[in-house]
Design a protein that fits this description.
About 50% of the residues lie in helices and about 10% in strands. It has about 400 residues and is of the alpha+beta class. It has one domain: Cytochrome p450 (Orthogonal Bundle), CATH 1.10.630. The strands form three sheets. It has a six-stranded mixed sheet with strand order 1-2-3-9-6-4. Strands 5-11-10 form a three-stranded antiparallel sheet. Strands 7-8 form a two-stranded antiparallel ribbon. β2 and β3 form a beta hairpin. GO terms for molecular function: heme binding; iron ion binding; monooxygenase activity; oxidoreductase activity, acting on paired donors, with incorporation or reduction of molecular oxygen.
């Protein structure tokens, strides 16, 4: 079968950035495997739940972007290797080796021990905004909360938090300006500065270890020779970026979903025991990672009768799959009482989100505190006027989230 081809101009639109789900529904129905011709590279998108779940564990769809094919060049550009050559972009056994080392730092007991500190950071952030009666929740709360948590876990000095956050936000908001050339230059500069900072940071931790994840990784590396120096740096970057980016965007998306579905918000206020199930439903409903990180077809593969040629970039559309009516009744409706279903918001297979326990814990504490600390919380602008990350961004999130509440 000849695959449907969708030009980027039809897919990456302003309307899509506001609400991608009508487009996802059309793809699932009429082009469940299609080639999207993007501004930097073309990719095959897989949008039905069963196909998406299968693709996430398909060994023919490689995550090794930095191997002989050097596929990272067309996806991330020439300056990405210093930060992005990590376990996210690798296959077993390399991925297994790296994940095994890092997973020890995310043991459930260690994460649960962080609960009081996370609650303290949440209270500190809300103490600053609660008396004002209004806030910009992305800048004031959703972004700094997970950034502070992961920075402390990693061991980044408090004096450096704001600078590191600035660099990561340049990368996160790539494509938001009206000047793409200047935008790319700013991202490259931020990547370079962040790489230099993390390389120096790892060296400083080796000289003065402490009770943090990076010190643990260095100790494991020095004892067993399990991580190279460059892997220490790229792993630190992955933990830093993945540890706050998606959680920040999730908190923004979840807040908007609740405020625009008042009957569901009322349910949650009336029954706080719903919170764990609500987090799962909010993630299914409007997750922060619409398309899983890229895969490369290591050989010709076929999905839905469409041949995907060897060497093609493949994107698994998580947010489309999580709205598949074949698996979720009335999928475009937010239902906090929905039975916990098999959503793939945290991925599936060997690349299942390593920080899932931390993300769930942060989300539960943050959402609960927002509802209790900011009475009568409401959007300050109509939902359709909220400024979002550009349609071509790999993330679904907000640039700003202005709200009002009773001071």
């Amino acid at each position: 079968m000849t695959e449907p081809v969708v030009p980027a101009s039809e897919y990456y639109t302003d309307e899509f950035a506001v609400d991608p789900y009508p487009t996802f529904a059309e793809l699932r129905e009429n082009a469940p495997v299609c080639l999207v011709k993007g501004p930097r590279f073309d990719s095959y998108l897989i949008s039905r739940f069963d196909d998406a779940k299968a693709a996430l564990t398909d060994p023919r769809l490689s995550k090794d972007l930095y191997g002989p094919g050097q596929h990272y060049l067309r996806i991330f550009g020439p300056n990405s290797e210093a930060l992005n050559r990590n376990m996210l972009n690798s296959d077993p056994p390399e991925h297994s080796r790296l994940r095994r080392i890092v997973s020890q730092a995310f043991a459930p007991r260690r994460i649960e021990a962080l609960r009081p500190r996370v609650a303290q950071i949440v209270d500190e952030l809300l103490d600053k905004v609660a008396p004002r009666g209004e806030a910009e929740l992305m800048h004031d709360f959703a972004i700094p909360l997970p950034m502070k948590v992961i920075s402390e876990l990693i061991g980044i000095p408090k004096a450096d938090h704001d600078q590191v956050l600035d660099w990561t936000q340049v990368i996160r908001t790539s494509g938001s300006s009206k000047n793409p050339e200047r935008d790319r230059a700013a991202v490259q500069e931020a990547q370079l500065r962040l790489h230099h900072y993390l390389a120096d940071f790892v060296q400083a931790k080796r000289a003065r270890p402490a009770d943090d994840i990076v010190s643990d990784l260095i100790a494991a590396c020095d004892r067993q020779g399990t991580l190279s120096e460059s892997e220490l740096v790229t792993t630190t970057f992955l933990l830093l970026f993945a540890g706050h980016q998606t959680t920040a965007d999730f908190l923004g998306n979840a807040t908007v979903a609740l405020l625009t579905n008042p009957e569901q918000l009322a349910l949650l206020r009336a029954d706080p025991e719903l919170l764990p199930a609500a987090i799962e439903e909010l993630l299914r409903f409007d997750g922060p990672l619409p398309v899983a990180s890229p895969r490369i077809a290591a050989e010709d593969v076929e999905y839905q009768g469409v041949r995907i040629p060897r060497g093609s970039v493949v994107g698994v559309v998580i947010n489309a799959a999580n709205h598949d009516p074949a698996h979720f009744a009335d999928p475009d409706r937010l239902d906090l009482t929905r039975e916990r279903g098999p959503h793939i918001g945290f991925g599936h297979g060997v690349h299942y989100c390593l920080g899932v326990s931390l993300a769930r814990m942060e989300a539960q504490i943050a959402i609960s505190a927002l509802l209790h600390r900011l009475p009568d919380l409401r959007l300050a602008v109509p939902a359709e006027e909220l400024r979002r990350l550009p349609a071509a961004s790999p993330f679904r999130g907000l640039l700003e989230l202005p709200v009002r509440f009773t001071a």
